[in-house]
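Researcher: Re-running this chain for the archive, since the previous output was lost when a drive failed. Same request as before.
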Amino acid sequence: MYSMRGVLSVKSYKSFSWLLGLLLLALLLAYVLYSQAEIKLRHEAVLQDKQETKNTIGTLVQAQQQTNLLLAQSLAENPIIEELLQRPQPLLRQKLSQLTANLNNATSFKDIWVQLVDIDGRSVYRSWTEKVGDNLLPFRPEIGTVFETRRSLQNISVGRFTISFKTMTPVISDDGTVLGMVDIVTQFTPLTQKLLNDAGVETVLLVDKRFQSVLTRALTGKFIDGYYVANENASKALLEQLYQGRLQAFLETPDYTRIDGYVVSVFPIKSEDGVLAYWLAFKPYDAIDFSQVNWVLQKYVVISIGVILLVLLLAVIIMSRSHAEAKKRYYRQIINSVSDVIYISNGKQVVDANAHFFELFDEFENLETFLKRYQCVCEVFEREEGFLQPTMNGMFWLDYVLMHPNERHKAKIVHNGVPQIFLIKVKTMMGLSERLYNVLMQDITQIEHYEQELKKLSVTDELTGAGNRLACNQAMEKEINRSRRYLSTFSVILYDLDFFKKINDTFGHDVGDTVLVEVTAAVRAALRDTDVLCRYGGEEFLVILPQTPIAEALQTAERLRSAVESLSREQVPVPLTSSFGVAELTRWDTGFTLLKRVDRALYQAKEQGRNRVEMAEEVLGPQEN
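Model: Regenerated C-alpha cells:
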C-alpha cells in the first residue's frame, strides 16, 4: 500500500508540475504578447510621428499661402501696380522689380515670382523674365474667374518650371474698375528646407509623371521614372535609393516604409484634378521617440508577472491603475512636447499647465509660486487696443473668446522686457465635474513682425521714405472720420517743386531723385510728429495736419516754403522754390472735394508767380462730386 505521505508527495508533485507548466505557459504567452505589443506600439509611435510630420507640412503650406495672399493684396493696393497696368513703361517695371526684391528680403520665403496680368489676360510684367505681352487666358482659365468674381484665388499647380504656389488677386481702381491682377508664385524648396531644419526630416518632392510633358523648362532637371524632382535640396543619397527601382513601392505603401535606417512616409499633394505630386519624408528611425513605448513595455512585463503571481482581481486592479498612470504620463509628455503654451483654468485661476507655460513665466518654479502672485494669466496682458483685456465688452475674456470663435484673438505679454504676441484659443473641457477651460497660447510674434513690415512697405514711397498714395488715402479717411466724430477740424497742404522738369532735363533723373529726397528730409524736419507727409505723385506732396485750423496751416506752409528755398547748393544743384496750396476741412467737404480745393489753391499759387502760399477758397454750401 501507498503511505499517506507518498500520496501527498505525489499530489504535491503533480500540483507543482501543474503550477510549473501553467507558469511556463503563462510566461510563453506573456512573451508572445510582449513581442506583439512591442511591434504594435512601435508601429503606432511611427504612425504618430508620421501624423506630426503631416501636421507640420500642413502648417508650412498654410503659412506659405497666407504669406502669398498678404503679399498679393499688398501689391494690388500699390499705386505702381495700378499705373503699370494702365501705362506699361520701363521705368515703372524697374520700380516694381526693386519692390519685388525688397519683398524677397523682407520675408523668409525666397525666390518670390511676381507677374502682372492686364484685364485682357496679357502679361505686362514678370519678375523672372523680360518676356511680356503673351495672352494667358487660353492656358489659365482661373484668370477669368478672378476677374469675374473680383476675389483672390489660390492654388497649387504644375507649370513649365516646377510645382508651385500661385496666388492671384485682382487689382481694382478707386472707381471700382478691374484693371488686371497680381500673380504671386512661390516654390516648395524653402518649405522642405524648413522641415529639415525644424524637424530633422529630409524631403524628396516628386511631381507626378503625367506632368512630364508639361515640365519643358524644369528647374532642377532631375527625373526618376518619369517623376520630376522638384526640390533643389533633395539629398543625393536618398535619390540613389529611389533610382534603385524602389520608387513605385514607396508610393504604393499605405502607411510607411523602412529602408536603410529611414522611415519613409508619402504625403500626396492633391488638387481638383487629382494628385499633383508626392511629398516623400525621410526621417531617421533612431530619431523617432520610442521612450514612451519602452516605458509601456516595461510596465507590461511588471503587470504580466503580477498577473502570474497574484490573484486575478488584484492583477486586474494593478493593471488598470498602471494603464491609467501610463496614459496620464503619456498625455502629459505629449502636452509638454507641444511648442505652444497650454494651461487649464477654472475661470478663477490656473489649475494646471504644461512645461512651456513655465518657459514663458520663467521666474516661477511651479504653479504654486505662480498663484502666489497671479490668479489669472490675463493680469499680465498689455493694455493695448486690438489685444485681449481681462474684460471684453463687459464679459470675462475667456467667455468672450468662446462667444466669438470666428474671430482672431491676440494677447500681448512682455517677457524679460521683450513684447511677445500670442494667438489665443479657448475650448471648454467636457465631461468633468466642474467647468474648466483649455487655453492654448501660440507665439506669433515673428509672424506679426513680418505682417507689420509688409504693411509698412505697402504704404511707403520707395524713393523718399514718405507715405505713398495709399498711405495718403488712409490718413485722409482717418482724419475725416475723427473730425466728424469729435467735431474737430484739420488742414491739408499740397505743394510741388517749381520747374522741377528742368532739373530732370538738365541733370538727369538720378539728380532729380536726389533733390526729391533732400526736399522731403527738409520738409519732414519742419513738421510735427503727428503730421503726415505723403508723396502724392511725381514732385507733388501732400501734408495732412491733424487738429490744425487754416491760420496755423498757412504758417506751417510758409515755414515749409522757406525750408525748401533755404536748401544749400551742397544739397541741390540749383536754387529751388516751391508753390503751396492750403485748405481746411469744412462740414461740406468730402475727401474728394477737399483735395480738389487744395489743388486749385496750388494752381493759383503757380499762376501768381510760384514760390508762394495760397489759401483755398472757402466753401459756403454743399459741393458736387
